[in-house]
Every structure is written in structure tokens, then in C-alpha cells.
Amino acid sequence: MAREGLRTLVVAKKSLTEEQYQDFESRYTQAKLSMHDRTLKVAAVIESLEREMELLCLTGVEDQLQADVRPTLEMLRNAGIKVWMLTGDKLETATCVAQSSRLVPRTQDTHIFRRVCLKYYEHEFMELACQCPAVVCCRCSPTQKACIVTLLQQHTGRRTCAIGECRPAHGRPPEKPAA
């Protein structure tokens, strides 16, 4: 279902003894209090619990696109216009929408850059992203979307067209995006 561009949700269960639960809770609490690599440690503890589970159900939801999105994107690409999708969605949702709109072909390799990318490697990120056939930036606020558009204009010297909520808050400079 995910290969077809559907957002998937897997529901499963696992019975734990009191001892297993206490062990998990202790490791989880310790990971949440960690000063270094907190996110990775929490994810590792959760992943350790997500084994040998009983599958209860599986769902697949298709994100409905507005009419004519696919042909419009195709016409833009055929005209040599690069399309970037800046969204507040999570990575998984953004990927599904990009594939279902055919902004990104299902067979195309994707590269994922984490938050530190624009914070420390702004120029390198823009160099690489501008060479890509399509770019999807997820978990962006409207202000961060505006910042990416501004960076793109500054880096390329070209015109951009931003559709949607891509305006910085009045009187404040744009914050760095979380691409």
C-alpha cells in the first residue's frame, strides 16, 4: 500500500509481563532524560518494544489531491519549471503526497536531510537541492517556507512563485527552516 502512495497505519499489540513493562518504562524514562542523542535513544527503546507483535489490522488512506494537480505539475515540469513542495506534513505524509501527485516518481531515489542540514550547511544544501528534479521540505511552518523561498531566490537569482502560506510574520525576519 505504501508503494502505491497510500498512507499506511499498522495496528498491533503485545502483551507484557509486569517485569517487562517495568524494564521498558525504566529504559524509556532514562532515554527521555538523556542529554545527548535523546531522540535516537528514545527511538531505540521504542523500537526494542516493537518486536514480536500480533498484527491486528492494516489500513491504507489515499490523500485526495485537488483536481488537475497531476497534469498541472506535469505541464510545469515539461516547461522546465522545477517544483518544490514545502509542507507542514510529517515526512511519511509528505512522501505519500509527493508520490501520489507524481511530483516524485515512485521509482525515483529519495535523499533525506535532517534539521542540522540548513542550520550548518545552508550553501551546500541549496547547491544540492537545486540540482534535484524535485524537492520536498516537510515539517515547515509558514515562516520557514518563506525562508526557503528567500534562500532559493538568493542562491539562484531566479524568480520563484510561492503558492499558499509562504509569508513571514509581519516585522520579523524568517526563522531557519527544519528541512
Task: Please describe the structure with a list of short key phrases separated by commas or semicolons.
179 residues; alpha+beta; Rossmann fold; 2 domains; two-stranded antiparallel ribbon; two-stranded parallel ribbon
Topology (SSEs and partners):
Elements: E1 7-13, H1 18-32, H2 38-49, E2 54-61, H3 69-78, E3 83-86, H4 91-100, H5 116-120, H6 122-131, E4 134-137, H7 142-156
Parallel strand pairs: 3-4
Antiparallel strand pairs: 1-2
Helix pairs in contact: 1-2, 6-7
Describe the structure.
- With 179 residues, the protein is α+β, with helices and mostly antiparallel strands.
- It has two domains: 55 residues, no CATH class; 88 residues, 3-Layer(aba) Sandwich (Rossmann fold), CATH 3.40.50.1000.
- It is built from seven helices and four strands, in the order E-H-H-E-H-E-H-H-H-E-H.
- A two-stranded antiparallel ribbon has the order 1-2.
- Helix 1 packs antiparallel against helix 2 and helix 6 crosses helix 7.
- About 3% of the residues have low confidence.
- Keywords: Transport.
- This is ATP synthase subunit 9.
Q: Strand fraction band?
A: 5-15%
- State the helix count: 7
The oligomeric status of these chains comes to single chain
The overall pLDDT, averaged over residues, is 84
Question: What is the helix fraction of residues, given as a range?
Answer: 40-55%
Name of the CATH class of the largest domain = Alpha Beta
Question: How many β-strands, per DSSP?
Answer: 4
CATH architecture designation of the largest domain: 3-Layer(aba) Sandwich
Reported by name, the CATH topology of the largest domain is: Rossmann fold
**N- to C-terminal distance:** 26 Å
Main sheet characteristics: 2 strands, antiparallel
User: Which strand order does the major sheet show?
Assistant: 1-2
Rg, rounded, reads: 20 Å
Outline, from the CA principal axes?
flat
| CATH-defined superfamily of the largest domain | HAD superfamily/HAD-like
The structural class is alpha+beta
Organism: Saguinus oedipus (Cotton-top tamarin)
Protein name: ATP synthase subunit 9
Keywords: Transport
Pfam families: Hydrolase
